[in-house]
Amino acid sequence: MAVTPEQLNLRGMVDIHCHILPGVDDGALTLEESLAMCELAAADGIGTIVATPHMFDGVHQTPEKSLIQARMAELRQRLNGLLEILPGGEVRYSYEIFQEAPDPQTKIRLNGTSYMLLEFPFQAVPPNIEMTIFQILNAGITPVIAHPERNKRIQEKPEVLADLVERGALAQLDAGSLTKSFGPEPYLSAKRIVEAGLAHFIATDAHHQDRRRPNLSSAVAVAADIGGIEYARAMVLANPTALIQDRGIPYQLECDMDALRGKRRKKSWFQFWK
Ligand SMILES: [Fe+2]
Fold first, then answer.
1. I need a surface site. Which of 56, 71, 81, 172 has the fewest CB within 10 A?
2. Per-residue pLDDT averaged across 8-20, rounded?
């Protein structure tokens, strides 16, 4: 029987990928829209949102740290404690990463921790990505790969993601991929990644109040059907909570390569503590 969001006890979820800040990218347009999105998120059980405006994507102007802080302050004041907003960014794979990564105060870190949210182009995985992952790790930052299930190369060859995780990267699925908002390919890829135990986080990647909304619970219910309730809950509770507190990620599974290649469904999972 399918798991429902109500059965999952999801209060206090942490969303590590959300375009919640007004007027900085293609996310919320106004402070009023940001507030409406926060109300939707809080109603869904989300207690903390990491604001992740696009950075170095070649489309939007990368916001200065002072602008991020100013927009966060405005939002926090109006939220009056409804939920917590933390600073971060969705960092496009780019030359700027190498300049920014060594700076301990860099805005590319999620909530000033040793984690960053790293986005690839949608059509390809950059060449020499292994070297980039190594250099980022060497700078003391763990890259969290944003929505790998929406990347065409990883859809075709999921072993690419397994290799990056093996090297020390983590993986964040978009909620909309699991709920089929992006169509069949991202859903099938996300399903396979969960079956293989290769995902560490589910996040909203929300942009607006009326489309790409901030909702996690529906996707967690889908993930619970695929990979079990405990694993699904960990991807929105224990794991992102550890991330924003700059601790090791508690639920990490051994990758089931057969499940990843679609040869069989993952039957069991285990956790270990870093
Ligand atoms: Fe995003």
1. 81
2. 96
Residue 267 Cα, ligand 1 centroid: separation in angstroms? 31
The Å distance, Cα 109 to ligand 1 centre, comes to 15
270 lies in some domain: no
Distance 42 CA to ligand 1 centre (A): 19
Gap from CA of 52 to ligand 1 centroid (Å): 7
Distance from the CA of 90 to the center of ligand 1, in angstroms? 6
**Number of domains present in the structure of the chain:** 1
Amino acid identity of 55? M
What is the Å distance from ligand 1's center to 180 Cα? 17
pTM: predicted TM-score of the whole model, two decimal places:
0.94
Instruction: Flag whether 269 is in a domain.
Output: no
Torsion of CA 29, 32, 37, 38, to 10 degrees: 130
Q: How far is the CA of 147 from the centre of ligand 1 (A)?
A: 8
Query: Collapsing DSSP states into helix, strand and coil, what is residue 204?
Result: coil
Residue 188 falls inside a structural domain: yes
* CA-to-CA dists, residue 66 to 14, 70, 71, 72, 106, angstroms: 24, 6, 9, 10, 12
Cα 103 off chain centre by = 22
Distance in Å, CA 51 to ligand 1 centroid: 10
CATH number at residue 234: 3.20.20.140
Question: pLDDT-based confidence at 95, cuts 50/70/90?
Answer: confident
Residue 271 in domain: no
